[in-house]
Amino acid sequence: MSIQAPERLSFIGRDIERVDARLKVTGRATYAYEYPAEHVAYAYGIGAAVARGRITGIDSSAAQGVEGVIAVLDHTGAPRLGETNNRELLVFQSDRVSYRGQLIAAVIAESFETARDASQLVSVSYEQDEHDVVLTEDHPASFRPEHVAYRVPEVSVGDVETALAQAEITVDQAYATAAAHHMALEPHASLAIWEEDQLTVFESSQYAYEARDVIAKLFALGPEQVRVINGYVGGGFGSKGSPRPQMVIAAMASRVVGRPVKMALTRQQMFPVSGYRGPTVQRVRLGANRDGELTAFEHRAAAQTSRLHDFAEPCTTGTRTMYAAANRFDTHRLTRLDVPTPSFCRGPGEAPGFFAVESALDELAIASGVDPVELRIRNDTTRDPSTGHEYSTRNLVACLEEGARIYGWSRRRNQEAEGWRTGHGVASSMYPTYQMPSRAAIVAYPDGTFAVRLAAVDIGTGSRTALLQIAAEQLQVPLARVNVEIGDTSLPYAVGAFASLGTASWGHAVHLAGREMRQLLEGTDTIPPEGLRVEVDTAEEIQARPAKANAAFGAQFAQVSVRRHTGEVRVDRLVGVFAAGRIVNPRTTRSQLIGGMTWGISMALLEETALDPNLGEYVTSDLASFHFASCADIPRIEASWIEEDDADINPVGVKGVGEIGIVGTAAAIANAVFDATGVRVRSLPVRLDDLLGD
Amino acid sequence: MIEHELSLYINDRLHQVVVDSRRTLLDLLREQLRLTGTKKGCDHGQCGACTVLLDGTRVNSCLVLAVTCEGAHVTTVEGLGTADALDPMQEAFVQHDALQCGYCTPGQICSAIGMLDEVRRGVPSHVSSSLEAVPAVLDEREIRERMSGNLCRCGAYVNIVDAILSQVG
Amino acid sequence: MRPFEYFRPSSLADAAQLGAVSGAKYIAGGTNLVDLMKLGVEQPDRVVDLRDVLEQEIQELEDGSIRIGAGVRNTDLASHPLIRRQYPAMSRAIVAGASGQIRNVATTGGNLLQRTRCVYFQDVSRPCNKRAPGTGCPALESGGLSRGLAIFRTSEECIATHPSDLAVALVAFDAELALWRDGQERRLPLEQLYTSQESAPGRETILEPGEIITAVHLPAPVDGRRSHYVKVRDRASFAFSLVSVAAAVELDGDTVRGVRIALGGVASRPWRARSAEQAIQGAPATSANFSRAIRDELTTAVPTADNRFKLALAHNLVVSTLEELI
User: Fold this and answer.
1) Would you tell me which residues 80-99 of chain C have a C-beta closer than 8 angstroms to some C-beta of chain B?
2) Chain B partners within 8 Å of C104 (Cβ)
3) Is B156 helix (H, G, I), strand (E, B) or coil?
4) Helix then strand then coil, % of chain B, to nearest 5
5) Which residues in chain A touch residue B100, judged by CB atoms under 8 angstroms apart?
6) Which residue numbers of C have CB closer than 8 Å to A's CBs?
7) What is the DSSP string of A415-438?
């Protein structure tokens, strides 16, 4: 049998409708909390009211007495859990309180309303210790972490101090970024169902296999005894990359009460419990000659983590890749505080890091008198300046030039009309290209259809659609004959959706499986009723990749207006041009890039989860007090790209587009604010407080 | 728990239910009637994911006690169209890729439909340059302002505005 | 949310009786009450639904004044031709607040009785003198979050702000409330609804148990008066104000014949800037006069380190709003 069409079918690069769009617009896409379960019970969490201390007593008798309450779980009676590196998940295992809002008990009841009501009747007493929640640049307890997001914490090349001393122009400034929360619209939710010793969890997860393995260990089960289903996930942005306590509580409660149990974090509970982008304090020192050519580049970052486990925002790792400078130094400091554990958040590291670096570049442009676009072009490099590796593809300059052309950079003017002053800013974007091993299976059926199976997940990125296109391209069959099945650990292993590596990693596996299937079918006359199956693993091919530097690049241009008498800032226009490998689907890619740039506007002007140092808590813990951008904050955003053919990264040539849109945006906007007002804001978010003249 | 008998129309179908007085219209839809197309995002009227049409106007179903809905007519996303026969607004969202994770989407669509009706009825907005001009000219700026009660975290606003703009007659 | 009895009376008398007992709460739109009940901030054991008893009309009375039923939804009030034409600041104030969805449900009476959005008040695990007298006010502590809170102090124990935009505009228009109790309707200037709060920040209004706001009265429009409402907030929409201004001006040539200025986001209640009004009234309508007058008004403000910017913001906003109206 031959499935070779007479003319080659081409799907990669085609503008194809998102395959699950119709389900989503009709409300028929089912998210974790929504799966039907007979006789389900509801769990509601209770947070600690101190930032550091010990629980000395929990009186749940009043709650237990409420009609409809089935159980109250806390450290005094909860089942013992197994091991995990993620100590946020060791719920109800000890009397220690590591941060305010940490879940210390849960009520299980017949209804959500009853569980919520009873939770307020649980009375907890504490022995409170003095807490320390404030990050400073030189906190006495700070240390250099062993790694930052799997990378080394510090890189030194040449002699920065000497280069700075000899530099004709220097910039030496401190920058800060605020704590901010992911706030996916779907709250973190879990529905746990035990059948004998078999556990199924419907989970709002970016990484089903990780959730499965973690939960299996915690409950002393073999991985095959746990199934995690994450068919639809209402946004994640990093917060759902690892399981959150509600998953453990739902599974624990379900085991205790012998019924399915579901639990969603309330929006308020998501602030302490679901991770966040930690605040950063950074310092950038640049040395350059009169033409703006960098000779020294130093970037230091301080970040916080919790007492439970270390997470270090990798702020300066992106800097290692950016500009040519013979003398470079970057390093991280981390401080353990009585705060919730921060986590990966869209554009982790690069998003806050590039605010500092790309602001500093703007300061250098002003100091040197070199146009900020030209300054960046002058300092481009063809080799990774830290490792010396050649780039597989690097199109920063093309992005800057194309962006400047689209934006009309050379024709930009500062205007003032009706009290609004306009300004323009530019910044570079970059996000490293990662890939991790994944498996994929394809089954061919006698009716000519194919099932593509892997435990990938579509958290809104469009991966379902992209994988369909990649599979159909390899199989050379129409899209309608291919079904992509993802979001379930009963499918072959796939890495999670994070670090913009999903489509690259899964696409690679689907590509290989498709190729193998096509070869198999070429030597096959009849397909048996149960179908023909191939399964592949990309681990070996990934190992064999050439040692090159891999990254996506981009450039963003912002026009802002600042109202003179109120300091209000509005973004009028945002243009981004990116070079991110091969674009599988222009429609969903554009959505991803615009989404990231929207985050960038939000980060620049709005996002700060405010800390109360006395209570030791992030207190703007709802969506009325923690602001992210509303529709009214977002102008027309123009996102486009330069096609790249990069066979070194993976056979599909995909670099990933989930993160890069947010990288640099905040700097472009802050640079534009400076251009409009002459006020350099070095601490995000840029607020009217900073800009209000008298 | 104090329970009440309640009759209301959901998507033109009469439902007779017994509800806990504490239950919101949102939880009635999702937990009791299994109409899970209406989403719980914040449960406090701060995100708009739970938007439904209540007696023809858009409301946050999380802030409406079910018990107050005796005799009411509720339209949810399930009542707008089916996958084979989408409501024009649903179709516009598909065509403009005005969604990513899809969780805010049903609320966005119900809100957009209610919003267009408000414009026809002459409801002004914060950005209407004149309070005299009725109805307002529905340009991008007006749509952005009027849709600001529906937060989208994926960042699909640009496409949402385009989708709605395509439905402005 | 505690279990509660739910009543939907069909007469004011029944409503008054049902609502007069301790632990009862009236519900109209419910957009704030339901929110607070979920948080445990409000814990009524009885909820009395006023939807069948509140007036739903906006009427022009013979003396030219306007009576707005307390049950009129915010959207309908903002859209009403009389309001748009004669009291544009009111329309503007309403559409500057909340979201379309909330405005469709929230009522005129309920809007005035909203409780503060201070983050300490909203969370029952946090200290708050307003919600739990004597527990303290974290916003007043060094480092506490006070950026959005009051600069005019009405209490030593609490600097929460009143969140309503509508109330600010109504105060500028000298609106009165119709209050119903024991079969009697009485009138009360809206400004007097809000208590001084000095020693009891938890008691925000002078309403007695069982007392119901049935209507809002707007004095007849003044010839030649122009009014406006301007709100500044962090997010472009769907956010509470940092500072807002409702202002109305009548000119006599180049002289200010009459002026009304009310500020939102600066105090526990809408802040009528009376001393500024007095300074401006009868004086030439110049930016310099406006600036001097509001600067003097603001000398009584006591900002925190975090909200000191509100002084400049309020000043600039008042001056620019008045400039727009002359």
Assistant:
1) 84-85, 88, 91-92, 95-96, 98-99
2) 57-59, 114, 118
3) coil
4) 35, 15, 50
5) 235, 460-462, 591-592, 595
6) 1-3, 38-40, 117, 119-120, 122-127, 138, 141-145, 147, 232, 234-240, 242, 309, 312-313, 315-317, 319-320
7) -EETTEEEEEEEEEEEEE------
- A515: number of CA atoms within 13 Å, CB side? 11
Q: Which two tokens stand for residue C5?
A: 């009895």
**C110 is a domain residue:** no
Mean pLDDT (chain C, rounded): 96
What is the reported pLDDT for C201? Answer: 84
Report CB contact under 8 Å: B60, C84.
Answer: no
- Tell me: ipTM over 0.90: yes
> Are C316 and A268 an interchain contact pair (Cβ–Cβ within 8 Å)?
no
Backbone φ, ψ for residue A421 (5° rounding): -105, 135
Domain-embedded: residue C234: yes
pLDDT digits (tens, 9 = 90+) for C87-120: 999 999 999 999 999 999 999 999 999 999 999 9
The pLDDT value recorded for residue A3 is 55
A384: nearest Cα among A462, A338, A319 = A319
Predicted confidence at residue C254, as pLDDT, reads 96
**Which residues of chain A are under the pLDDT cut of 70?**
1-6, 693-694
What structural domains does chain A harbor?
A: 21-30+435-543 (3.30.365.10), 389-433+550-694 (3.30.365.10)
Q: Is residue C319 part of a domain?
A: yes
Please give the average per-residue pLDDT across B89-111, as a whole number: 98
Interface of C with B in 191-250 (CB under 8 A): 236-238
Residue range B55-82: mean pLDDT, rounded:
97
- The total number of structural domains that make up chain C: 2
CATH of the domain at C34: 3.30.43.10
Contact C51/B4, CB-based, under 8 Å? no
Picking from C99, C117, C229 by the largest number of B CB atoms within 10 A of its own CB, the best residue to mutate is: C99
Average pLDDT, chain B: 96
Q: Is residue C59 in some structural domain?
A: no
Contact C143 A624 (CB under 8 A): no
Residues of C with Cβ-Cβ distance to A45 under 8 angstroms: none
CATH of the domain spanning B3-79 = 3.10.20.30
Name which CATH class applies to B88-165.
mainly alpha
pLDDT at B134 over 80: no
Q: Which residue of A has its CA nearest to C318?
A: A565
Hey, are the CB atoms on B68 and C100 less than 8 Å from each other?
Answer: no
Which residue, among A621, A519, A567, has the nearest Cα to A181 in the 3D structure? A621
* Residue ranges matching CATH 3.10.20.30 in chain B: 3-79
B169 — pLDDT class (breaks 50, 70, 90): confident
Strand arrangement of the beta sheet that strand A532-537 belongs to:
A482-485, A450-453, A439-444, A532-537
- pLDDT at residue B144 tops 90: yes
Which residues, at least 6 apart from A493, have a Cβ–Cβ distance to it below 8 Å? Answer: A209, A438, A439, A454, A455
The enclosing domain of C235 has a CATH number of 3.30.390.50
State which residues form the domain around C27: 1-53
Phi then psi for residue C19, to 5 deg, are -95, -5
Q: Alpha-carbon distance A165 to A421, whole Å?
A: 38
Confidence (pLDDT) at B133: 76
Query: B76: nearest CA in chain A?
Result: A27
With a cut of 50, which residues of chain C have pLDDT below it? none
| Cα gap A73→C194, rounded to integer Å | 44
- Number of neighbours of residue A564 by Cβ within 10 angstroms: 18
Please report residues of C whose CB lies closer than 8 A to that of A613.
143
Task: Note whether C123 contacts A614, CB cutoff 8 Å.
Answer: no
The size of the A-B interface in CB pairs under 8 A is: 190
How many angstroms separate the CA of residue B149 from the nearest CA in chain C? 5
Q: Specify the domain boundaries for CATH 1.10.150.120 within chain B.
A: 88-165
Q: Calculate mean pLDDT across residues B98-112.
A: 98
- Give the residue from chain A lying closest to C230, CA to CA: A566
A659 is annotated as an active-site residue: yes
pLDDT in tens, A538-592: 999 999 999 999 999 999 999 999 999 999 999 999 999 999 999 999 999 999 9
